[in-house]
Structure formats: C-alpha cells, structure tokens
Design brief:
The protein is an alpha/beta fold. The protein folds into 2 domains: 420 residues, ANL, N-terminal domain (Rossmann fold); 105 residues, ANL, C-terminal domain (GMP Synthetase, Chain A, domain 3). The strands form 7 sheets. It has a 6-stranded mixed beta sheet with strand order 9-11-12-13-14-15. Helix 4 packs across helix 5, helix 8 packs across helix 9 and helix 11 packs across helix 12. It is globular.
C-alpha cells in the first residue's frame, strides 16, 4: 500500500488490513530475497538510488544546516564499509557508535550494515561505567565517537577507535576514510542481525538484543500504519538515535520508506524544537510524552499546526494529549512497544478504527497481543493481567536476550513486563509495569491512571506514583509531584490535589501522601524510574542498623 492510499479522507480500516495481512506480503516490502540475500544498507539506502532524493536534513548546534542525498550517503557508506573490511571486520562483528546527532552517524550506521556487520548505538549521555558495561557485552571491533565523548573510553581495552572530528593521528576518522573506493554490500540471510541494542530492567545488567534484518518489516508497518507517513509529509522523530525508538523509527524507518530523516544536533529544549518545526516545515511529529509535557508547560507560542502526532516511550496522559490537540490542531496518537519487539499496539494515524479515550489502541496488522492471568492463561476481556505478545505473530522477530538464560517466554507468549486490560473490542488499556502496580487494601491500582488524574490539576507539571509500604493496607498510594512555576508547595496544596484526584478516581486510589520535588528520576531517554522512588521510600522507612547509629 502506497502512502498516497493513506489519504485522510479514505483511511483503510484496521480490520480489513489485518485480515488481508500475510507473511509473504510482508516480505514484499523488502528489496532483498531468499535467493540473492539481504543487506540492511540496501533496504535503507541503495534501493532509493539513483535519484536525487534527500536522505537527511540536519540542523547543527550553530544553526548551520546540511542535506544529504541518498546517492551521497551510499558513497560514504561504501567507503566506510571498505575501511571496515580492510581493518579485518567480518560479517556479524559489532561496530559501536558513541556519536552525537551528526551526519557522520548515518555514514557509520549504513557503512557498518553494508559490510554485513552489526551496528550498536551507545547513548552519548551515558557515563564511562554504563558505556563499559555495554561494550564489554558486545565486544565491538571498532568504536566511532567524537572528541567530546572520547575520554569516556579511556582505560577500556578496545581493538580500535575512530574520532569523527579528529583531523590527525591514528584515530582520525577523515584520514581512515580518505581515498576509499567503496565496496558492494555483503549479502546476508534475513535472520542475520544488523543492530545490537541493550535494554534495562529495574534489576540486573543491561540485556543485549540482536535485531535481524527481517525486523524491518515491522518498521515498515509502523511507519505506514501507525505514524501514517505520507509521501508529502515532512517528518521528525524527536527521540535520540542512541535509543530504540529514535534508531528504529527516526532513522531506519524514514530511510526504509525512502523518506527524509530529520536530525537536530542540539539538546532538546522547547525553543529548539519549535525552531526546527518552523525552519523545516515539520508536519508529522513523533516523540515521547516527556517532550510533549515540556511543550505544554512552556509559555512559548507553538510554531503552527501539525498533520499527525505520535507518542511513544510511556503512556501519554490525557491532559497533555488534549493540549497537543488544541495547540497543534491534530490528535496525539499513543503507541506502545519495546526494544525487543518494536511498536505493537497503536492508535494508528494511518488506519481507521474506533478511537477509545484512555486506551493505547489496537495491535498493528501482523501482531497479536493478549492479557494473561497468573497461571499463563488468557484473561477474559475487561480483566487486568500481564500483557503478552503471541510469538506466533507474523511480524514477531525476537529470539531471546544475547548470552542470557533468563528469557521473557512462557510457552508461545512473550511476557512484556507490563500490565493491561483488553477491552471487548480488542483495544488495550495500559495499567502499569508489573513491578509498578500498587496493591492497597486488596485493590490493584495502576500508577498511570492516578498520574493522569494528577496531571489534570492546574498546578501539576509532572507526577509519578508508587506504592509505599503500609502495615494496614499493604501499600498506600504516594505521589511525587513537580509543580508548575511559580506555584509554591504547601500542605494545603497537597491536600487539595489529593482530594482533586479522589473525586476523579475512587476512594481507594487517590494519593494519601504527596511529596513535592524539583524533578523526577528518569532514564536518559526520559522514562520515569519509579523503582528508584520505591527504593527511596523503603530506605526511609527501614529501622536504622547498628552501623547507621
């Protein structure tokens, strides 16, 4: 289905597309085939050459702008692959990119894939220990970085390092690329990995996720059906390509469908975001609720209307969703997925289906999700349980964590670690992470519902909810609240907010304690780390040991 067929006045129905979906058809979106083989660089770049199509529009920190065509990107990728192979890299070897949002990132990504190697993104906000943990697990044959991040690699035993803004010496990227002729893509099987991601839980070390080439089928489905990307859209995904959502759908997704990826080198600010939207005429925007909440709290005037808005990373609260609709003139569509799956459950921009307020939407064509009870049996509609994905789904691709014995599999189900409710019509409502769900006086309370109610209060900028241990109720609901400026915290305001939520939800689910904080603990990608808040409460309530006295 072409993007032209996704015109707003005749969106295809989700049910029709899902019914017609087949594994065979899903492979038709790829340029490779079982006979000649597959290469991810062909899928993301070569298939769009010849032509003068623009692969990347980039805005530097100093406001300099650059565009990169698919033809130029193909040349640079071929040169990088040539350099890799000359250095002894073999298919399947890992190449890590500890890189800022610069055009060189695409050269490294696609050149790595062209050589049949596996690209590993490393988020530039990580400190040395987090970087060391991930590189120890992946064992890359080369790390490419910039001078600002090079010191984080000091003391690590690495086979090779190149620095993109180093002009001289053995680590100079430009010297290593000089006078390269380029090489043809190394053909692989559909199951060969092209990315190595890492995902973290609340405990243990980060887990490696090898992403096979055929996963690009679900990337294509997400871009067309959920993002609803049209040929004439100007698209920007705010997420950093050091993380799954930014890499899968900000870069790979745009390139796979022959579109133009947008990249801004500067760190996120509302002012910078609005400047990029104005300058490039962005009309299809994707990002995380953290960014959208910052926009809603900002006094800056929005830069104009948008045609489509996608939200992912954590559930989008209704208050922020309502603001986005009013401010930009487009409904914000919530999407759910994981590093191990890609996006699975969506309120689709490109498909027609019922719009259920407070839900994540429906499974994308090619996927099946369900809700399980404690015994691993499928729950009836309307009953909360463990959100699981059927591993027999046509688009399922995850084979298990690299070099780990603990896997999220029970029978033919993939346990996501989230809790949800499936409605009778197939829509899913998010309850919370399994380890975030609060048990109070026999009730199971999802933090998202309480946080959404808190966000409706006019004084609240951000909120996170946990269960604090309580001898009488097992747990009580405790909220950590960031106030909008210039509101001052007070006991009276805390009581007012508690009663505000009580009136909107129920007597058992309102926050009995509220703590006002300057900021919430978050991952570098912006997800609230409730487990740190729980640990803080447990430590506070624990009787002092002898060594504490």
């Amino acid at each position: 289905m072409s993007a032209t067929e996704l015109a707003a006045d005749r969106l295809p129905w989700l049910a029709d597309v899902a019914q017609a979906f087949s594994v065979e058809d899903s492979f038709e979106v790829l340029a490779g085939d079982p006979v000649d083989g597959y290469n991810a660089c062909i899928e993301l770049c070569d298939q769009h050459v010849p032509g003068d199509g623009v692969a990347l529009r980039w805005l530097g920190q100093d406001d300099s702008a650059e565009t990169v065509t698919y033809g130029h990107l193909q040349l640079r990728a071929a040169q990088f692959a040539d350099m890799l192979i000359e250095r002894g890299a073999r298919p399947g070897d890992r190449v890590a990119g500890l890189l800022p949002r610069r055009p060189e990132l695409l050269t490294v990504l696609l050149g790595t894939l062209r050589a049949g190697c596996v690209y590993q993104p490393v988020f530039t906000a990580f400190g040395p220990k987090a970087i060391e943990t991930r590189l120890d697990a992946s064992r890359p044959v080369l790390v490419v970085t910039d001078r600002a991040n090079r010191p984080k690699l000091d003391g690590l035993d690495l086979p090779g390092v190149l620095v993109i803004d180093e002009e001289h010496g053995p680590e100079s990227f430009s010297l290593a690329m000089k006078d390269r002729q380029g090489v043809a893509p190394v053909m692989m099987t559909k199951d060969a990995p092209f990315l190595m991601m890492f995902t973290s839980g609340t405990t243990g070390t980060p887990k490696g996720v090898l992403v096979p080439i055929h996963m690009l089928r679900t990337v294509w489905a997400y871009m067309r059906y959920a993002v609803g990307l049209r040929d004439d859209d100007t698209y920007w995904n705010l997420a950093d390509p050091g993380w799954a959502y930014g890499l899968y759908y900000g870069l790979c997704g745009a390139l796979l469908v022959g579109h133009t990826a947008t990249m801004s080198e500067a760190p996120f600010t509302v002012e910078r975001t609005y400047e990029v939207i104005r300058r490039f005429g962005i009309d299809n925007l994707a990002g995380a609720p953290t960014a959208y909440r910052a926009m809603a709290a900002s006094p800056l005037a929005v830069p104009g209307s948008l045609r489509a808005i996608s939200s992912a990373g954590e559930p989008l609260d209704p208050e922020t969703a309502s603001w986005l609709n009013r401010a930009f003139g487009a409904p914000a569509r919530d999407h759910w997925g994981q590093t191990e799956l890609g996006m699975v459950i969506c309120d689709h921009n490109g498909l027609a289906h019922p719009r259920r307020a407070g839900t994540l939407g429906y499974t994308m064509p090619g996927w099946r999700a369900t809700v399980l009870d404690a015994d691993g049996k499928e729950q009836a509609a309307g009953t909360p349980g463990a959100l699981a994905v059927d591993r027999r789904s046509d688009l399922y691709w995850f084979a298990g964590y690299d070099q780990r014995t603990d896997q999220p599999f029970v029978g033919h189900y993939h346990l996501t670690g989230d809790s949800a409710v499936m409605r009778s019509d197939g829509a899913f409502q998010f309850v919370g992470r399994d380890d975030d769900v609060i048990t109070s006086s026999g009730y199971r309370i999802g933090p998202f519902e309480v946080e959404s109610a808190l966000m409706e209060h006019e004084a609240v900028a951000e909120a996170a909810v946990i269960g604090r241990p309580d001898p009488a109720r097992t747990e009580i609901v405790k909220a950590f609240v960031v106030l909008k400026a210039p509101t001052a915290p007070s006991d009276a305001l805390a009581e007012q907010i508690s009663q505000f939520v009580k009136q909107r939800l129920a007597a058992h689910s309102y926050p009995r304690e509220i703590a006002f904080v300057d900021e919430l603990p978050k991952t570098p990608s912006g997800k609230v780390q409730r487990f740190l808040l729980r640990q803080q409460e447990v430590s506070r309530d624990r009787p002092p040991s002898t060594s504490d006295r």
